[in-house]
User: Which sequence fits this backbone?
């Protein structure tokens, strides 16, 4: 098994005028080439931080991050990162947005444009190429952001709650699309999500993180029967129900909550909403 | 059948909405004209019945005649063009200069912290009192006038645009960095275009400020221009001339403002609907 | 006159545009400068400070401004002092205007009144106070003197009801009279006597380098002064009206008439000792100078004298 | 059965410079006093519009809206409406935010303050009364908004995706809290949600809307065994799994999607994301 | 055991961060002072070596002496106080008036549409040229000066604050309406407090503009004040006096700006962290 991503003893603390906040604590994680891993855990447990570390956007306070055996020291076009929202530039049309990676590398040209056009068509965006982001639906924009990320043909795809702002149906469609794309290209993927169903349906392994500071609580392997199927179909597998219930049980336990504890939530801060 | 009934009431709604909107627009136009007419009539009456001094306030008829004469004699246009050219130069330079300065501050955060108190003090300097410095630096001529206008606009432009630069959602910068973009590319691809609406809307403010700056500049030193006409009008105690010039200024400034609004509306549509 | 063929360029800054400077515009409109082979580029730099600044910084070659400015400059120790070389007006140009018509006027009528004067530090204010003192009136004790209004806004202040008396330049005084809003009682120009009021000046270094040009310039001015002396106000008004867009010809004639009558327009640019001392007296009394600048230091009459020959 | 809310033949079209958009079309719906109804449906199908009509914020283009037999003609303190986000005033502390209803009615006084303090305590916010919204977690803020809405003791509670921005766990806790509060006070509730699980777990009836313009597609009655239990517990009921799957099946059918249709989503506009 | 090790490296990080921040702050202060010193020295040298004209630019030593003399003679303080009082009055009135006007526009959207072009034209009117109107309307005194300052600030304040009023998230207004709030309550409970940060930040801009307005006003008519000193300095061609006054203006304006920043920082904490 080739290891594509490796986090060894990674800790990270954010330092600011108010002091230091430990976001990730002594994390060890290997992701094999072509593997699809999901990260789930309560808000503020360090999921985005882990993606940022993998992408080389921030340097770990301690430990090392490796990409295919080499230390990650900064952003690298081999890694594609899709942020929680689409962050398409509103002043560029979809095609120009998708081409930005080439523009930055200085390699925008007929070849790059042909590749982007092909991808846009593949993602059902051929007709929207000249339109501006605000003219598109949320689902189309997420797809455009995906095209932008995939256009430079990354080996690794990092996805930070890519579907959380979307409608149920669009969500199911995009899950299938991403899953297929990742499989077809043999891309290694790390998905952060709050939706346990999504995590279970899409990935080979689900990593459950403890409440902050981020430590791995458990890792759950997804049965082969579910892994073999598209996410939207996986949900109809007989094994899916039990898997999902096991996952939720683990989360509710790990977070000290569970039925009947509702009134105690006042002490639990949620940095997101 | 239900489809058709449905369409008919929706059309009716649309029709009602449109005619209401048209009525309001008409009302607004009528009120605008009425306000203007009332002002003119009040002015004329006030002067004629001696409530206010004709010497100081002139009156609309006289001003119209003066404007007609000026236009006929062919001197109104050159004066206006001079001032418009100076104002345009001043506000383009002020906006570009302010943007460039803002870029500098964004690029070097330490510089921005160092310069902060200086900018504040410069901003509250009465530029009128700096007249002699402009004359020394740029000679008694167009350059001084344009620089006065620039001095009035540049600091506030810098502060506004720099503020906007810093407000750009960090995630847009992240997108560029993720593709290995340099700091220059981050600025060029994300920060600058993301601030374009703000830059254009400071243009709007700067149109007004540049007019003030140019008129003040023409008070310092000028051979022609509307500010020159004003100061000359004061000199020869011809307030009709002063007020006529002010009216031309108002009209031209409104036109320039309208042009900037047009530019704003022409911005890539993605900008507007955010 | 005559002079060489190539037109030398001279940049001139005037402190304001006024009928008080009629000879300058006559020289321009009658082509006297052109006759001397000069191409004069006239620029209004509103205010003595801006005009002097333009002169000192080389923005203009010759300034038309009050002599007192050159004294201030000299007293602050200029390396390259500003030299007065030709006077254009030789009296103050303001008038005493009353709100009410008077059959007879006595300066003592001003006692206890509200007097709207010119702003502190300027020549009109100094000449005004000098005149009052001359008539035994202490400007700061015997009447209420308002000195806080900007030159350009004094007519507005008076017209809106401030003051019983006001010190006004032309054409304001004549316009008020014509409109029946004020009545000219006396001339501060007559009362304060002869003095170098508005003078052409240049930096010493410029004069040394351009003696020829300064001479020709003075010649043209002198020619214009004579022309003004010899022509009736109406003709003078016609000659200068192109510089006074929007000004009523009647008013212009009246103003020129008045200035001519009290000999405000100098004939010949020579500044004599008596005039100089009068200026110093007035400034000294006003408390704006503490030492008397000798005439030789900043006045050079040679060009004016040559021109008269 | 007392009818608390009645929509009879309600249609609504938004009119603007661009023309009219039909948002709700010929809707008939009765909600009994004390009943808990959920509205689900694709984005843009008119759910928020229906709540706005019920709250009297907008007048229906056609048809009538009745509250306990009386025609609704404007906002009415008998109806409490919780918007999609908390919209607490950032410049007021939690207590002053919760008291705003009384301030507007001009009845803020010791009695109102006592009542609000009691509610805050009941919702685990006693310690946060003097704190400002930005100092609180998302879950606490949603609870504060709930207190604000409940303080004036409304007979009807309208909830527009109240939990969609929250973490899974906090969400479960708040679902229980709202459910209990509604039951305890005999309040009539209408909940809009995208989360089918939530709809199934909380309500007595689930109303499934068609894609725009909003028409009722189906109404699903929730079995008594699930209705009897707290939402977090309801999910563990044996009947819950089948109910949930039926619901999802209906949605996927009604929206013309379903497995395998992923690539067709390009034509489906999503006005939200 | 691991807990302690963990704490030690985090503390080290914190320490590093703090000392780095302190170093940068120190650097900024040093650069600010160095810049100031360099400016002073350059100025002094430029005058002493005759690169620039002493008459026009004076020099720091002379200005310091002049300020010392003015302070010793007891005339600096009254002049400064006069101007500060006028500026404060002008900027408080301008801000309040602008807010009130903005409220009017918000309340009556038709009025806002009717007045829009008039506001634009008024905004680009050079207020200096309106001197006579102020003097006629408010007499030659403090009132005219204050009104000049108000005229400079009020329109831009109105436009900015009205813009903000309209930007308030409609859902906040909905909250008030849902409780049966009237339009007045919507304004008082949601629109106005929601715009307070904008109002305070226009205060910041208005401090600068009011200074300009007051100085211009003092140019029109004044017996005392820093603008009066400047004009007097020009009259007697004493640029040392002019520059001294400008320096006092800069210093006092910076102090006022600091005070407004303090007010901004004192705002209910909920405002800032949005
Ligand atoms: N730039 C930053 N500066 C300081 N602290 C930060 C920063 N980014 C994140 N944190 C803190 O680090 C911790 C982990 O944050 P992170 O964003 O990685 O969590 P997350 O799991 O992605 O949460 P969410 O599910 O809300 O996105 C949190 O406590 C957060 O407050
Ligand atoms: N104020 C408005 N003006 C014009 N059209 C509107 C307005 N509000 C909503 N609409 C349109 O009416 C339709 C229904 O909108 P509504 O907000 O009720 O949908 P929704 O079901 O609540 O959607 P979501 O799940 O995204 O909140 C949509 O097509 C929307 O674009
Ligand atoms: Mg995150
Ligand atoms: Mg909605």
Assistant:
């Amino acid at each position: 098994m080739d290891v594509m991503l490796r986090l060894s003893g990674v800790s990270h603390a954010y330092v600011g005028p108010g002091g230091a906040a430990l976001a990730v604590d002594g994390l060890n994680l290997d992701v094999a080439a072509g593997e699809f891993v999901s990260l789930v855990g309560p808000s503020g447990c360090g999921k985005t931080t882990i993606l940022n570390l993998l992408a080389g956007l921030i340097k770990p306070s301690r430990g090392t991050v490796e990409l295919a055996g080499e230390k990650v020291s900064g952003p690298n076009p081999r890694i594609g990162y899709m942020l929680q929202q689409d962050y398409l530039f509103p002043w560029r049309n979809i095609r120009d947005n998708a081409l930005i990676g080439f523009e930055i590398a200085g390699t925008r040209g007929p070849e790059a444009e042909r590749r982007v056009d092909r991808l846009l068509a593949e993602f059902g965006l051929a007709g929207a190429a000249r339109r501006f982001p605000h003219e598109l639906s949320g689902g189309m924009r997420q797809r455009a952001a995906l095209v932008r990320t995939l256009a430079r043909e990354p080996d690794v795809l990092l996805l930070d709650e890519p579907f959380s702002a979307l409608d149920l149906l669009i969500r199911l469609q995009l899950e299938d699309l991403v899953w297929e794309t990742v499989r077809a290209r043999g891309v290694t993927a790390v998905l952060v999500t709050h939706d346990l169903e999504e995590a279970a349906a899409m990935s080979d392994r689900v990593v459950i993180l403890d409440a902050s500071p981020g430590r791995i609580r458990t890792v759950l392997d997804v049965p082969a029967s579910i892994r073999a199927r598209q996410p939207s179909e996986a949900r109809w597998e007989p094994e899916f129900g039990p898997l999902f219930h096991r996952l939720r049980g683990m989360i509710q336990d790990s977070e000290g909550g569970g039925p009947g504890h509702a009134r105690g939530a006042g002490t639990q801060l949620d940095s997101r909403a | 059948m239900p489809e058709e009934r449905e369409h008919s009431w929706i059309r009716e709604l649309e029709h009602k909405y449109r005619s209401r909107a048209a009525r309001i627009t008409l009302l607004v136009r009528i009120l605008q004209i009425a306000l203007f007419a009332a002002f003119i009539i009040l002015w004329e009456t006030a002067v004629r019945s001696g409530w206010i001094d004709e010497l100081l306030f002139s009156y609309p008829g006289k001003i119209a005649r003066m404007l007609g004469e000026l236009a006929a004699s062919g001197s109104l246009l050159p004066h206006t063009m001079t001032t418009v050219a100076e104002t345009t130069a001043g506000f383009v330079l002020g906006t570009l200069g302010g943007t460039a300065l803002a870029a500098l501050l964004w690029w070097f955060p330490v510089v921005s912290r160092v310069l902060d108190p200086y900018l504040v003090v410069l901003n509250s300097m009465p530029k009128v009192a700096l007249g002699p410095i402009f004359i020394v630096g740029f000679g008694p001529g167009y350059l001084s006038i344009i620089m006065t206008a620039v001095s009035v606009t540049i600091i506030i432009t810098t502060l506004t645009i720099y503020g906007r630069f810093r407000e750009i959602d960090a995630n847009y910068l992240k997108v560029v960095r993720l593709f290995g973009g340099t700091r220059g590319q981050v600025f060029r691809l994300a920060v600058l275009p993301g601030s374009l609406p703000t830059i254009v809307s400071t243009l709007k403010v700067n149109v007004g400020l540049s007019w003030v700056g140019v008129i003040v500049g023409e008070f310092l030193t000028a051979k022609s221009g509307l500010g020159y006409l004003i100061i000359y009008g004061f000199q020869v105690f011809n307030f009709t001339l002063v007020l006529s010039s002010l009216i031309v200024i108002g009209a031209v400034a409104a036109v320039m403002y309208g042009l900037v609004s047009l530019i704003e509306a022409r911005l890539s549509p993605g900008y507007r609907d955010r | 006159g005559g002079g060489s063929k190539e037109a030398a360029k001279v940049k001139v800054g005037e402190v304001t545009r006024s009928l008080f400077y009629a000879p300058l515009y006559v020289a321009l409109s009658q082509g006297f400068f052109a006759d001397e082979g000069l191409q004069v580029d006239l620029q209004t730099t509103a205010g003595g400070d801006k005009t002097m600044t333009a002169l000192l910084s080389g923005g203009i070659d010759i300034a038309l401004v009050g002599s007192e400015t050159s004294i201030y400059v000299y007293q602050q120790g200029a390396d390259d002092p500003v030299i007065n070389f030709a006077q254009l007006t030789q009296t103050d140009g303001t008038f005493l205007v009353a709100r009410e018509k008077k059959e007879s006027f006595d300066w003592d009528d001003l006692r206890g009144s509200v007097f709207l004067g010119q702003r502190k530090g300027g020549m009109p204010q100094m000449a005004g106070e000098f005149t009052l003192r001359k008539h035994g009136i202490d400007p700061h004790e015997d009447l209420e003197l308002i000195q806080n209004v900007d030159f350009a806004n004094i007519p507005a202040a008076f017209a809106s009801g401030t003051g019983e008396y006001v010190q006004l330049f032309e054409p304001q005084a004549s316009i008020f009279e014509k409109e029946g809003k004020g009545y000219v009682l006396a001339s501060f120009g007559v009362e304060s006597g002869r003095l170098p009021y508005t003078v052409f000046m240049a930096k010493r270094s410029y004069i040394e380098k351009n003696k020829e040009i300064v001479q020709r310039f003075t010649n043209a001015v002198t020619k214009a002064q004579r022309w003004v002396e010899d022509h009736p106000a109406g003709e003078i008004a016609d000659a200068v009206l192109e510089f006074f867009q929007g000004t009523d010809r009647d008013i212009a004639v009246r103003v020129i008439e008045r200035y001519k009558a009290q000999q405000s327009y100098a004939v010949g640019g020579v500044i004599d000792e008596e005039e100089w001392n009068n200026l110093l007296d007035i400034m000294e009394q006003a408390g704006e100078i503490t030492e008397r600048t000798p005439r030789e230091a900043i006045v050079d009459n040679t060009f004016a004298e040559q021109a008269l020959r």
